[in-house]
Each structure stands twice: as C-alpha cells, then as structure tokens.
Design brief:
This protein is an alpha+beta fold and 411 residues long. It is built from 13 helices and 19 strands. α1 crosses α2 and α8 crosses α9. It is globular.
Length: 411
C-alpha cells in the first residue's frame, strides 16, 4: 500500500505544481469524504505554501447515487442558489481550485437517463456564467486522482479489493511521477519542458488542418482555427502563477475550427459519461457537426452527450499524444478520462479553450466565435488514438508534413 512519505509527496505536488497556491490566496478543495486523509495533507501543505484560506467542499458518491435513485427529476434540477454563490465568492476572491477525484466508473448505470440529463443541464445552466474562470485560466485549477474500492474493482476485477487498490495506487503514483525516493516536483518541471517542446514545434508548423487515419476506420480531417496556439503541460493563470490543470498530463492540444471537421472517427477506449461507460462508438462529422453516431453500449448516454446543447455536437479540442507514452505503456484501461485521455490522441465535444487562439483570453464571446471557437455548456474528451494512427499536417498551400507514424510523434 502507499506509504505516508509518498502520500505527503503527492499532496505537496498537487498543491505546489498542481494549483500552485500563492501567498495569501484562497484554495478550495473538492473531494469525496472517503479521501479525508489525503485532503488533510493537502490542507496542511497548502498552508505551508502560504495559502491564506483553505476551504473543503465535501461530497459522497454514495449519497449522490441515492439522490439519483430516490429524488424526482424536478428535485434534482433544483440547484440551490448557495452553491452558485459559494463558487462565485471563491472566484471573486481570486481563489484556486483543486479537485480530488476517486469516483466509481459506471456508478449510475441503470439510473433513469432523463434524471441524469435534467440534473446536469440545470447545473450547467446555473454555473455557465462562472465557467470562463477556469476555461480562460483566470485562476489556477487542477485535478488529481486517488484510488477507491469501486474504481479498483472496475480496473482489476480479478483481484481482491486490497490488491486492486494497491495496484491502482501503483499506477496512479507512476503516472504522476511520485516514488519513494524521488523529487516529483523536479521531475514535473522537466516533464513540462518536454511537453512544451512539442507545442513549440507544432506552432512553428502552423498547420491549416490535421488528417487522421487508421485501420479501425478513422478517417478524419480537423481544420484548425487561424492564429491557433498549441498548448499542453503547465499553464499560466491571470495572476502569473504557473500551474498544471491535469495531473497526469501528456497531451498537446489545440482548437478546431467549429465548422471545419469532416469524416469518421472510431473511439478506441470507453468513455465515462453521466455515470455510465459508453463503449464501441463511432461519430461522423460534416462541416464540423456530428451528423451520425452509434454506440455498442450506452447509446442513450452518447445521445445525451451529442445533443446536450447546440455546441456539444461540434468539437472544442483536438489533442495529440504518442501511443508510446508512460500511461498507455502500463497496459491499464483506467475507465477514467483523466488517465485514459493521456494515453491516447483524443477529441473533445463542446466548448473550446480560449487560450488555443492568439489573444483568445482577452476576446469577447462574439470575437471568439468569429475566430472559429465552439461554445457549449459542456466539454467532454473521448479517445481515438491507436498503435497504427497516421497523422498528416496540412499546410495552407496544400503540402503535407507527417506528424504521427505508427501512433507516435515523428515531427
């Protein structure tokens, strides 16, 4: 099992390299009550780093499941005003946000999909005015993960609960570069440099579009917005703090032009969405929009995603990750987007990140739309990378440059 030393290192990493809490800054931590021991270490490390205040928003996935089972659709859609006020208070104070996740994949399987859809739509509409704080990197935010018995059982069904949790701990700590005798902060600084290198190379190429093709049936052209910016690894907040939104992270990502995606994409990993696992799914795009889709498992959840709002049927992100990557090389299917998206090239349906176009974080919504950005109340990544993925970068003059061969960067 994980040692006290490793757990404290992980907490320090989340606080200093994840959100990078600044002197006197408010830190808000969101976590399940079962993760209280790790959260206590995060609180302690945050104050050591100079945090002015640390608040913890506790939740319980057991309680959440009971709510979906027994509450009516109307009750689930009634989001208390104090939740909005609480978030707005923290943002108005210039706070940073750390999300500690350990949820069970497929927890809501069997729950009425209309209930789930109604609750998510209500929450999305309420919090929409506050979304730009993190989407524009106005303040720091980060997501880290801890194992839970439910998650471990899904990933390692043949192991005992204790063995499964130990195995999942091992995989998580490897992914975030924490070991008994290393300096994970130094390793993350080096890792960020490597990720930024690929972003620099891709930005210098200034491709008009990317063409993805593999033997599974993916044949997709994704046009990029003009003046696009490839990003990945660490980001810079409005207050100047450098932070890592996702831990782990291996991706270089960019903004697709809203109406410029055409072709077919075949998902290569299950997608955890609305408490279910969508699997074996295919999307077809025409002029940027999903015009046809099918899933072997959880078709209703896929329908809910694509039809969530007008923007959820368009892309907001395209991300490149070599097949030969640390997380993919574990051979583990995590059933968790934070990990699986960092093991595979992926796309996201929904809202685009303003940082992926020059001057985007200073643009109005109308200016971003004119630049080609997609808007939505959601942003959901799904994975389509494979060992034989071939990617061509298409230049403005029509010439091409091979970016990926046999699933890996060659540029």
């Amino acid at each position: 099992m994980v040692s006290e030393n490793q757990l404290r290192k992980y907490a320090k990493l989340a606080v200093k390299m994840g959100v990078n809490v600044q002197k006197g800054q408010l830190l808000v931590i969101s976590a399940d009550v079962r993760d209280h021991e790790f959260v206590a270490l995060c609180v302690e490390e945050a104050y050591k780093a100079g945090a002015g205040q640390v608040y913890v928003n506790w939740s319980s996935e057991h309680d959440a499941l009971c709510n979906y089972q027994y509450m009516t659709k109307e009750a689930l859609s009634d989001i208390p005003q104090w939740k909005y006020d609480q978030r707005k208070y923290a943002q108005d104070k210039g706070g940073c946000f750390l999300n500690v996740m350990s949820s069970t994949p497929g927890l809501l399987k069997g729950i009425d999909s209309e209930k789930i859809m109604a609750a998510q739509l209500a929450a999305s509409k309420m919090f929409m005015p506050l979304q730009s704080y993190t989407m524009n990197n106005e303040g720091q935010w980060s997501i880290v993960a801890l194992p839970s018995s439910g998650w471990a059982k899904k990933v390692f069904p043949d192991l005992s609960e204790e063995e499964g949790i130990a195995k999942l701990w091992e995989a998580i700590l490897m992914s975030v570069r924490v070991s008994e005798d290393n300096d994970p902060i130094a390793e993350w600084e080096h890792h960020n440099e490597q990720v930024l290198h690929y972003s620099k190379v891709l930005n210098e190429q200034n491709f008009k579009a990317l063409h993805f093709k593999n033997k599974l049936g993916t044949d997709l052209t994704v046009e990029l917005v003009k003046n696009h910016v490839w990003a990945g690894g660490c980001e810079k907040a409005g207050n100047g703090a450098i932070f890592n939104p996702n831990m782990p992270t291996e991706e270089n990502f960019c903004m697709p032009a809203k109406y410029g995606t055409n072709g077919r994409v075949v998902a290569t990993k299950p997608l955890s969405y609305q408490g279910t696992l969508i699997d074996g799914f295919v999307l077809e795009f025409k002029d940027g929009k999903v015009v046809n889709y099918h899933a072997e498992k959880e078709m209703q959840a896929l329908k809910n995603l694509v039809e969530f709002d007008e923007g959820s049927s368009y892309l907001g992100e395209v991300a490149l990750i070599s097949y030969d990557s640390p997380i993919n090389n574990t051979g583990i299917l995590f059933y968790n987007t934070l990990f699986d998206e960092n093991a595979s090239c992926h796309l996201a349906l929904g809202r685009a990140y303003p940082m992926n176009v020059k001057g985007g974080t200073e643009m109005t919504e109308e200016q971003l739309k004119e630049a080609g950005a997609n808007f939505s109340m959601t942003h959901v990544d799904f994975m389509f990378g494979s060992s034989d993925m071939h990617v061509e970068g298409i230049k403005e003059d029509g010439s091409t440059v091979t970016v990926f061969e046999a699933g890996n960067f060659v540029i």
